[in-house]
Design a protein that fits this description.
alpha+beta; Trna Endonuclease, Chain: A, domain 1; five-stranded mixed beta sheet
């Protein structure tokens, strides 16, 4: 399991670097509460972004993409965490925010094969 954690950590660092390169301001990383963790909290264009990073190695011909692991249960947890963060940090109720997902696929040598930033991946609907 330790190997998986390091894959996740590598993916989060890659995602953070990508975000900075694309003009995002990182506010916080690894915001942890009992119910879970927000990987990256960032801002761009006055929108607060809660970013879930999913990383995996590349499996040829599998069609697998890491973002499919963001299921309904995970989405409910993410929304709870976002609301907790907004309350704790006393963010204005007028502050626009959204949940993004960044999918990182690594080659066997842990170099980046692909990065996919899915903006506003979780929108207002019942989960």
């Amino acid at each position: 399991m330790e190997h998986e954690a390091s894959i996740g950590q590598i993916g989060e660092q890659i995602a953070q670097n990508w975000l900075v390169k694309h003009g995002f301001l990182i506010h916080e990383k690894n915001y942890r509460r009992k119910m879970g963790e927000l990987d990256i909290i960032a801002g761009k264009n006055d929108v607060l972004r809660f970013i879930e990073v999913k990383t995996s190695k590349y499996y040829p011909d599998s069609g697998f993409t890491p973002e499919i692991r963001v299921n309904a249960r995970k989405i409910r947890k993410l929304k709870q965490l976002c609301e907790t963060y907004l309350r704790e940090t006393r963010v204005s109720q007028d502050q626009p925010w959204q949940i993004d997902v960044i999918s990182v696929i690594l080659n066997d040598d842990l170099s980046v094969r692909s990065i996919n930033h899915i903006e506003n991946a979780v929108f207002e609907k019942k989960y």
